[in-house]
Protein 1
Amino acid sequence: MTSAERMMKALWSAWWQRWPRRVAWATMLWAVSYAGFGLVCALRGTSLPYHGGGSGTPWLGWAVVAVGALATLASGGVVRYGLRPGLRVLLWVACGLAGITAFSLLMDVITLMLGQGVDSRASAANKALAAVGAVLLAATARSDRRSAGTAVREPSAAPQLVQLAAWAGTLTFLPYAAMKLVWASGGTFAGITGEELLAVSERNGASGIFLTLESWGLDPTALLAALGIFLLWGLVRPWGQIFPRWTLLLRGRRVPRWLPLAPALLGAATLAPYGVVGVGYLALATADVVTMRRGDFHSSGDALLVGWIGMVAFAVYGIALTIAARSYWVRSRPACPMSVNTE
């Protein structure tokens, strides 16, 4: 080992030794800022969640203050006393509450990518801040699990059951993508033509990029579904097998584990509950327990058909993504040096 390599190893070791305290400080700064954001919203009467109109619920700003205060207490305790078992519990509780608050952030991101404005800027900002906080709180709760002496595991494929879940998530997205491509190519499905849906998109303020892709017969949501499937298989198979030249492009360096995990966790936390709740509502609508609104479709039956195709795809894919992300998390986490195969 050269002197430069020894110096880099020493610097890396020193950085990791300071990691628990640094991430705790970052979490505490976020918690104070998040509590301040909630306080401003509460005092100004700003409604954070958006329910399509109405007087809103400004009291939820105080709920944000409570989550921020809890996170401040827990992370401040870690800064002062280190990561104690009781503080770890508080961190995970705050992390769970922040994760629930960040629900549907992915939908806001997709809406912005398609050039349409979000329903509520305050609500979107709250979800984004909560998502950042959930990551920081989880990192703080697990900060003592990392050390400079750990080693990266070799890339490996997921167990067979996890790969079967990935196949299920892939196959259920195919009808959704096909339906979207039929409309994008000018065809008719569920009693509505592609031209009618394009007019609806224009009326809803779709971006020029969205409308251009539609005119080329490429539906942006179908393209996002393809990217989602690519991500799903990247979690269950080594990246070099998904994209054979990936290793060459990276010049032998492995894909950082956070790079696929970040969008996977965001997608799983949004699509799985969104799809499962949607399937439950559609089941009630099919049984005539609730009334299915027809929206932009010509009949409730048409809206119900499209709803089943979309919600089943979101539910199964979201569950598959959750399983795949969990498997990738376990398979890619650092291993103790004694457990690494040196043969």
Protein 2
Amino acid sequence: MDLQLNGKVAFVTGAGQGVGRRICLDLAAEGVRVAVNDLFEERARTVVREIEAIGGQAHAAVADITQEQQVHAAIAAAEQALGPIDILVNNAGVLVERREKGGPAPLFVETDSEGWKRIVDLNVFGMLHCCKAVLPGMRERSHGKIINIMSEAGRAGEARLAVYSGAKAAMLGFAKAIAREHGQHCINVNVIALGAVSHEGIREGALAPTSTPQNNERLSKMLNAYPIARGLQRLACPEDVSGMVCLLASDRAAFVTGQSIGISGGFVMQ
């Protein structure tokens, strides 16, 4: 299927590895010029080089998306290098509690406001900053695609991840509201909800690409939470996500807006 994306311009946040990286590569394979955003310059430039190696055009958009001025500067530089932004993918997000503390996340009553702020700043304000930066141009051109990558924790809630669940739920509520506000401007806004995803940025544990149900007991147990994973004998990988992003970024999905689509192997069904 020709998605007719050739010549479009995308800005993808958190794109230096994992799901974001794969989204960039697959959009580029469809002919999209890609602004690769990451906090770390070398990660962004590595993905740019990968895109250029397959004949695509890309720009390293290094910025901390929690900082509004950095976002506006990065968007302006990307548009100067590639052209007006047609597609925004709000992919950046991190599970701060687990990655900093290790092991099970704490209960909400055991957390502090500093930790809440880090989670909300990245997952909510980062998204808001990026949307605010691209929406005026999309409105003026009467065309645009915004895709938020959230977690199933935001659709179902997850114990010990209360603030994270709330922040991800905000991504969904915001997307629905913006879809209503800007449908008249032919701007589609949708959300993809993920469960556990294995990718190259994770070096050890159940989510590492080298882990299998045979060599990792925790992974074997995790598969039971995802109906399709029991059959496939694996968790989601970035390629499971990037194809849906490409579809939603195209006019093949022109009549899809304000929707949340789970790519989580049936972890949440609704």
Protein 3
Amino acid sequence: MSRLQVVSGKGGTGKTTVAAALALALATEGKRTLLVEVEGRQGIAQLFETEALPYEERKIAVAPGGGEVYALAIDAERALLDYLQMFYKLGSAGRALKKLGAIDFATTIAPGVRDVLLTGKACEAVRRREKQGGDQGSFVYDYVVMDAPPTGRITRFLNVNDEVAGLARIGPIHNQAQAVMRVLKSPETAVHLVTLLEEMPVQETADGIAELREADLPVGGVVVNMVRPHVLDEDAVRAASGDHRKDITKALAAAGLGGSTRLVGPLLDQAAEHAQRVELEREQREALAKLRLPTYELPFLGEGADIAGVYRLARELRKLGVGA
């Protein structure tokens, strides 16, 4: 399995929750996972019911089997300071530039550079190894999971090489972008898209996959989130599509339940609505099947997406073979 797992999806599909569950699933059985946030929303901290994440890697959860999940909220300004120190040794000078507002200016006026910094930090974590004397040991993290921008921006965000091409054709920034792309366009990376069984999210997922493929970025799979259970079998769904009020009223009266006939209308209306939803979901599953990608379905969490729900979804992903 690819060591960098990028999770994107249309807003409202629960991509942050899925990214967190994926990090837990991959950390099962003693593995170590880093969960990375790049949008500054602190969604990971809210899910795991912890304080706001600083710009440092912090352990936030223990997975079944003793694995560990660390989290990092990447800040573009801090990443640029790290970059200046790494390539130019501008420790105190870099901090002075920040006070003057130059760092904020650089990360705002040049979004391509900002994306290089954000993706570069994640890719550095993918490549980082333990130091054992003068030799390099095993990887610090078995997997890095990125809670990435939404589907409409994911290709541009990841395709940082094109973004900086007009800004820096040579030099450290260019070299950094090239190093990032070597990871992002390799088998080390897989980009997963989260969707719902609804027309707009499924269409946006299909469009996003087409864009990723055109940019030669490695597509992983599709995660269908918030799947509601079917409460009617196929025969009942077909029956609900017709008008059977008279037959049901007659049957209730014959059974001595004539007083319940006022409930027939509302119950049949609900059944018809359910039948319409089942048909819509069938159509969306067919559309997703045409993408010819691994597809994983996660249940709707009636109790909400809290930390218990994240662990439940992680167990579901393990059952589906993710990280096994």
